[in-house]
Design brief:
This protein has 719 residues and is mainly alpha-helical. The protein contains 30 helices and nine strands. It folds into two domains: 436 residues, no CATH class; 184 residues, Serine Threonine Protein Phosphatase 5, Tetratricopeptide repeat (Alpha Horseshoe), CATH 1.25.40.10. The strands form four sheets. A three-stranded antiparallel β-sheet has the order 1-2-9. Strand 1 and strand 2 form a beta hairpin. Helix 9 runs antiparallel to helix 11. It is globular.
């Protein structure tokens, strides 16, 4: 519960330092749970370990196996059968110099995820989330602990709402030390994005409603008696302490009002609609159970209180946002359509879980040019494109299996606490399913952990037994510590250790060289070469480190050439240039989707003029790299197409017009220039500047004005 609260308070744990602390805390807690699960069988005195069985265990294991399957190298024929697009991308990841060799090997080995690093990072997160649910469910073994977990979540939600409203209404606009540059008018708590804050508020509100319904059961009240005349203080104290249910109900009304106002003032349309859907499902579930139909009135009462306070403060801005609902829907619809195009190319096995932001630029719409889009704003469609039909099918099967088991147990329970709190996971699942269709809440560690915590709370509540609800009756997988059991335990422990080691290595690497976006800390984006190399030593799977190393080496080379450093002799220059090329080839091999890697590598190939085989090997390799750049470029950046046009103008000059292959290079230059100008057709000022740059580039290589005039006319792009 401590790491859960920390995840929420530190910007939703979206930054490296936050999610590292959170994930390591989960792994340490899991190790403690494993140790505490070892005991002796009362019947035969043998050592054993008891592993909790839950409806989510199959889903956890299946997706772990599938993520591993996406990253392991497979023969080309198998990959081609499952994902032809992965073979194409895999071939474009090989050094361009190898593509010039006529006699290629019979087959290559590729992975289904052409960039394995994001998939491995996704697996670390999936392990942390799964172990968080499993460990928390195992420790919530009494009603007292369940209620404590509920109170912690609701208190955290109240703090988030109050803190966000203070910052918003006071005009401060801060999240701790960080000055917000967006969503200043709306409440976002300690989250940078208001929609993710709304996701937290929605889940907390539904949890509160279920808990309130559990407390609404009528029962015998303990009479308040006093010996003699009592003071007001004595009566007040006796009322609170003598009636704990009354205190809980007062807290519920307070927390529900505050959290509800926080949701409204987040101005998140998707969040409000999702909570409404969740409340509808909760009402229907109450109607199914005859003894609990009156509890719907508790939910209605809480909504009335929220609306009264909200209208009193003023909800003009939140309600105003619904007027722009269609505009926002059109943008998200465009994201979804382009993501589905990506899915069509990787239908069976997907592009790799976590690879969306690297692959999407190839499909990005011209209307979104110059934007860096990391999420599809639809978790369902994004996961389907990343995991393919196979992975998405595993997700649905695992979810429906969990829902089936939960409904089966819930329908048999009559205890009020079990019925009301036990239904909350189902309600929250519906709400988050709706919200995730227009946002990316499940990519925020804090929200996914809150979601997992609510699932654990509901699971434990459904298994409460006994008159005082002081114990749970779980089913366990019993493993005796014989050779077979020890092997299973070692596999489980190995998974925890592996996740912990690589979580720590990732953190240290990011401390040396930052590649994860971090808006709350002023990190150096251009660290020293020694720091980049240290990052690679800790985690060499990240292509971003290799690319930054290549840029650092290029800067060192250029500085040496500018000052005409006598120490930078021809031999050393050739060695440094080769190191730059090899570093960029490594970056491309790791992440073949990155357009800038291919383009930079193409220019570095073109600088290998000191090599004796420059004309037969390196210059043609530069052409291949630029063609690969065009393949992945899409319509994201007009400036990228201008740079590609510049390259092919240069290349056409080197070939010279007298050769037959001059015209293809010139045609490519014209195509890229035309594409750049089309992308900026609505920006006359920028378009005019581009035309001047195009003319300057052409004149630099073709100073003959008559030729330039005729050539530009044949291009059809710069006139």
């Amino acid at each position: 519960m401590a790491v859960l609260v920390l995840a929420v308070l530190f910007f939703g744990a979206v930054h490296t330092y936050a999610y590292t602390v959170v994930f390591l805390g989960i792994l340490i807690a899991t190790a403690l749970v494993l140790i505490s699960s070892i005991d002796r069988d009362p019947g035969n005195a043998k050592l054993r370990i008891r592993l909790l069985k839950t409806g989510l265990n199959p889903l956890f294991l299946l997706l772990c196996i599938y993520l591993i399957f996406q990253t392991i190298p497979l023969p080309e024929n198998i990959v081609r059968f499952m994902s032809p697009g992965a073979v194409v991308v895999g071939q474009k990841s090989l050094p361009a110099t190898e593509a010039l060799v006529a006699a290629s090997p019979a087959y290559q080995w590729f992975s289904l995820a052409s960039y394995a690093y994001p998939v491995q990072q996704s697996m670390l997160r999936w392990i942390a989330y799964g172990l968080f649910f499993w460990g928390l469910a195992q420790t919530l073994n009494s009603q007292k602990r369940i209620e404590l977990a509920i109170f912690i979540i609701l208190v955290t939600g109240c703090f988030e709402a109050l803190y966000g409203m203070i910052q918003s209404f006071s005009g401060s606009g801060h999240i701790w030390w960080f000055k917000k540059n967006s969503y200043i008018k709306v409440v976002s708590g300690t989250f940078i994005n208001r929609n993710h804050f709304a996701g937290l508020m929605g889940m907390s509100l539904l949890l509160m409603a279920g808990f309130a319904a559990a407390l609404a059961t009528r029962g015998n009240k303990r009479p308040v008696t006093f010996g003699g005349k009592a003071t007001f203080k004595e009566r007040f104290t006796e009322t609170l302490l003598g009636r704990p249910q009354l205190f809980k109900r007062i807290f519920i009304v307070f927390s529900g009002s505050v959290i509800g106002m926080g949701l409204v003032f987040s101005a998140s349309r998707g969040g409000m609609i999702a909570v409404a859907a969740g409340m509808l499902v909760m009402g229907l579930l109450f109607l199914v159970r005859k003894k609990h139909r009156r509890k719907g009135f508790v939910v209605v009462l809480l909504f009335v209180i929220i609306c009264v306070y909200t209208l009193k403060i003023g909800a003009d801005y939140p309600l105003e946002r619904f007027k722009t609902f269609n505009t926002a829907f059109d943008v998200r619809k465009r994201y979804v359509q382009k993501t589905l195009e990506m899915f069509d190319d990787y239908r069976t096995a997907g592009v790799g879980v976590g690879n969306f932001k690297y692959v999407y630029p190839k499909y990005q719409a011209a209307a979104d040019k110059n934007f860096h889009i990391e999420y599809a704003n639809n978790d369902w469609i994004q996961f389907m494109s990343e995991a393919g039909v196979v992975g998405f099918g595993l997700l649905l099967i695992g979810m429906f299996y969990y829902i089936y088991l939960t409904v089966k147990i819930w329908s048999k329970r009559n205890d009020s606490f079990a019925v009301c709190v036990g239904m909350v996971p189902l309600v929250v699942m519906v709400s988050m399913a709706v919200h995730s269709s227009c946002d990316f809440n499940f990519h925020i560690p804090a929200n996914l952990m809150i979601f997992a915590a609510i699932l654990a709370i509901g699971f434990s509540a459904l298994h409460l037994r006994g008159h005082h609800r002081n114990k749970v009756h779980y089913q366990y997988q019993i493993l005796y510590l014989n050779p077979k059991g020890v092997l299973s335990l070692l596999l489980f422990a190995g998974l925890v250790i592996w996740a912990g080691v690589w979580t720590m290595r990732h953190f240290v690497a990011e401390a040396y060289c930052n590649t994860v976006r971090n808006s709350t800390l002023n990190r150096d984006q251009n660290p020293a070469l020694k720091d980049i190399k240290a990052a690679i030593a800790w985690d060499g799977r990240n292509a971003g480190y290799w690319y930054k190393l290549a840029l650092g080496l290029s800067k060192k080379r250029d500085q040496g050439l500018r000052i005409q450093d006598a120490k930078l002799k021809e031999q050393e220059l050739r060695k440094l240039q080769m190191e730059i090329v090899k570093t960029l080839e490594k970056a491309v091999r790791l992440n073949p989707f990155a357009v800038e890697y291919h383009q930079q590598l193409g220019w570095e190939y073109a600088r290998m003029w000191l090599e004796p085989d420059f004309g037969s090997k390196w210059f043609p390799a530069a052409d291949i790299s630029m063609e690969r750049t065009a393949y992945f470029a899409g319509e994201k950046s007009s400036f990228l197409h201008v740079k590609l046009g510049h390259y092919w103008v240069m290349r056409s000059k080197v070939m010279a017009p007298i050769f037959a292959n001059w015209k293809p290079a010139w045609t490519k230059a014209g195509w890229h220039y035309q594409k750049a100008l089309e992308l900026e057709s609505d920006n006359k000022r920028l378009r005019k500047g581009m035309i001047q740059k195009i003319k300057s580039q052409v004149r630099m290589y073709y100073p003959d004005e008559g030729f330039v005039k005729n050539a530009l006319g044949t291009m059809g792009s710069a006139n």
